[in-house]
Amino acid sequence: MDDLSRTDPLPTRRDFTACTGDGATFCFMVGAGETYIAALVLALGKSALIAGLIITIPMLVGATVQLASPAGLRRVGSPRKWIQGCAIVQALSFVPLIIAAAYGDIPTWLGFVTLSIYWSAAIGAWPAWSTWVARLFPETLRASYFSKRNRICQISQLAAMLTAGGLLYLGERDGWQLKAFMWIMIFAALARLSSVWFLQYQGDVKLKTSDIIHVQYRALPKRLGSSGDLRIVLCLIALQFAANVSGPFVNPWLLDYLHFDKASYLLVICTLFASKCLALTLLGGIIQKFGARRVLLIGTAGTSVGVLMLAVSTNLAWITFVQVYSGVMWAAWELASFLVLLESIKHSERTSMMALYNFTTYFSIAAGSFIGAYILKCMDTSGGAYVTIFILSGVLRLGVLWLRPTRVRASAVEVVSPAPMKRMDK
After folding, report:
1. Alpha-carbon distance 310 to 303, whole Å?
2. Beta carbons of 220 and 230 less than 8 angstroms apart
3. Which of 79, 139, 167, 288 could bridge to 128 as Cys pair (CB 3.0-4.6 Å)?
4. Four-residue CA torsion sign, 377, 379, 384, 390
């Protein structure tokens, strides 16, 4: 089916509310559950190596398994049903973690299997979700709406992180740490289950087999020179690789090397989220005025400067200022990259391309973090080692700008009907 011939229903107020509710509950699950999984593994007596690998390896397994999501969505035919199924599986994957926290142990193999299921469901929902929202929300509304939605999601995730952190603090102080973990994982599972309810009230779209065509991956390299959509995807993947050379090690730098106390560390983390939320209040209008691609380039360059600034000083006030700046730049990059992906990839190829994007992104994240870890190990995690990975990450991010697409093929851009939106009181 050609993009020009689609007759998707225009969104109602209920669609906007439901999509925001789904995002907020999903991010609450991430803030309360996913953020503290490694800490739970350590509390269960596993080694630091296992705590690190139990995040990385299952993530790569999930990125591989989700390559089958286009075929699954083609069979189901409904993005809503597919995503609801993924959400339920993801919520149920917390059950072994809840039991482990209650009884104080979990076999290592079961931990890896559990987290592999979690990540397979999490990443597997994304291609279908991107196809769903691209069909449901017209391009003219996306910048304004998703800037507001992202702001609410950031607030929800931060609230979950702080609530779970406070519960863990009380648990450690009073001797019921594992019980605290148990309740945190229960809240995370319930949050993800509640998103199923929100998904049910979001308008579905009907997909035909022709809407989810299989992309021939072997032919993609030939398209890089002439297709702006693939250059955009490559640019985003490259930035994820560059960012994760240093990104996973900022927290160890703050806690293990600089020995920040909990109050200082919390200040730095909250500042990043707060600046993201404030930036998102303006970014929707900025993107509507100047375009998502320009904002994406600014965000890419801005995050490069931000990580280089970390190498300048270890003063708390300076690091806090850098976090404010970086939060703004990352908010711009995240929102713009999401909008550019939606508008630049052909409708019929979107699900398959997003599955491939997920696969390559998560492997690039792992590759970047392995490089950063190798440098830290070789330099004995000294101050010079952290400065080295910050500078390397910044330089690599600046190099990503060379990949920026100069144009996007007209047939790749999704054409949006200028028809007015439905009444939003339904």
Report:
1. 11
2. yes
3. 79
4. negative
Q: With a threshold of 0.85, does the pTM exceed it? A: no
- 3.90.1300.10, 2.40.400.10, 1.20.1250.20, 1.10.238.10: CATH of 10-206: 1.20.1250.20
**Single-letter code of the amino acid located at 146:** F
Distances (CA, A) of 1 to 5, 45, 282, 340: 7, 54, 36, 22
Weakly modelled stretches of the chain, pLDDT under 70: 1-9, 48-49, 216-229, 404-426
What digits encode the pLDDT tens for the residues 360-383?
Answer: 999 999 999 899 888 988 888 788
> What are the tokens at 89?
């599986």
Q: Which of 145, 151, 209 is nearest to 10 (CA)?
A: 145
The enclosing H or E element of 149 equals helix 139-174
CATH 1.20.1250.20 residue ranges in the chain? 10-206, 223-408
Given this model, what pLDDT does residue 224 score? Answer: 58
Q: Which single residue is written with the structure tokens 């970047």?
A: 368
Crossing angle of the two packed helices 228-243 and 316-344, in degrees rounded to 10: 160
The neighbour count for residue 176, using CB atoms within 10 Å, is: 14
> How far, in Å, CA of 7 to CA of 138, rounded?
12
- Of the candidates 59, 63, 118, which has an alpha carbon nearest to the alpha carbon of residue 93? 118
> What confidence score (pLDDT) does residue 387 get?
93
Within 137-261, where are the H helices?
Answer: 139-174, 177-200, 220-223, 228-243, 250-252
To the question of domain 223-408 being in CATH 1.20.1250.20, the answer is yes
Q: For residue range 43-58, what is the model confidence (pLDDT) as tens digits?
A: 888 876 687 778 888 9
